[in-house]
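haha ok so turns out i had the wrong file open the whole time. this is the CORRECT one, sorry everyone. sequence first:
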Amino acid sequence: MTIKTAARGQVPPFLVMDVLRTANAMEAEGVKIAHMELGQPGTAAPQAVRDAVKEALDRDPVGYTNALGLPALREAIAKHYKEAYAYDLDPARVVVTTGSSSGFILSFLSAFDAGDRVALAAPGYPAYRNILEALGVEAVLLPVGAKERFQPTVKSLQKAVAEGGKLDGLILASPSNPAGTMVSADELKTLNNYCAEQGIRLISDEIYHGITFGVEAATALSFNADAIVINSFSKYFSMTGWRLGWMVVPEKMIRPVECLAQNLFISAPTQSQLAGVAVFDCKEELDGYVEVYAENRKLLLERLPEIGFDRLAPADGGFYIYADISAFSNDSQAFCKRLLGETGIAATPGVDFDPLNGHRFMRFSFAGSPQTVRDALGRLTVWMQENFL
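then structure:
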């Protein structure tokens, strides 16, 4: 008799990881790869962070922490909200997580039941809809484009309700992945007010806060006491492999989230939490990293239109350029596969982020070094001239 496999595991792959696997295999064979697929800073964690961990490892045995995280780290995160957003946050509402990924799992499990309907922009981070699907929650895609700056609107939410019934949640990312677009404080307030009026739980993905270009990021906490906020040490804080993030939850959700965290994850990595305490004193160094991203962004926004990529999302924040490639291909996966095979440039097909219209788009990451970006642009220019221009 055949033993079954659970249907929840049959979610689509995270294509960027497939691209990375292929690129790494090519690199192992001696091909020089320009990595523009991963949203991973090319910089190391600040020196003070590494020093703090070395000291802690020499001083104490490393054991579990409370499921909600080290008190010192939760207090440091609360202090960060005061300094960055002028928002007074009770450290008791802070939940330290194993990266933002476990934050999404905890938030979805604590906020939604199987069969609930949760809206999210298409394009958007693919793990949102794939985790929701695995949990039996319906991901309601909001098809938004350049006109909406690739962000959900009240109008798009109202349309989703009219077509499919009540919504139980909304996932909002500002800056967004893959488009890098942001919603203003006024727009964020409008969305939060609508969600509050309609009984929609808003989950705000704020993991790219700190990496913005001439636009200030606002937190959903300023407008909605029932919002759940997800953040991470992976992006602005340049600690990707440390697998550390945090949630801010409403007071009534603290205990349910704690119980889920105890059973699913026990606690976030202790060494990483110790490092997280130290990183909040490294703002000058971290802002220097953002200046590098700004240089990369400027170069791409100048050069890409010159070689045919003339329909680009604004890239207000984060480190991505989302490009419309419909003038060259209607199959972004095939286009990116060919690009990697013929030039060694690894980039991500838009279908990873948008199953509706992503076949017409691709994403370039500029999280690496300026040299990587310049090298990739040189190869891309030659390839485009030989094949499309």
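The two ends are 58 Å apart (CA to CA).
again sry for the mixup
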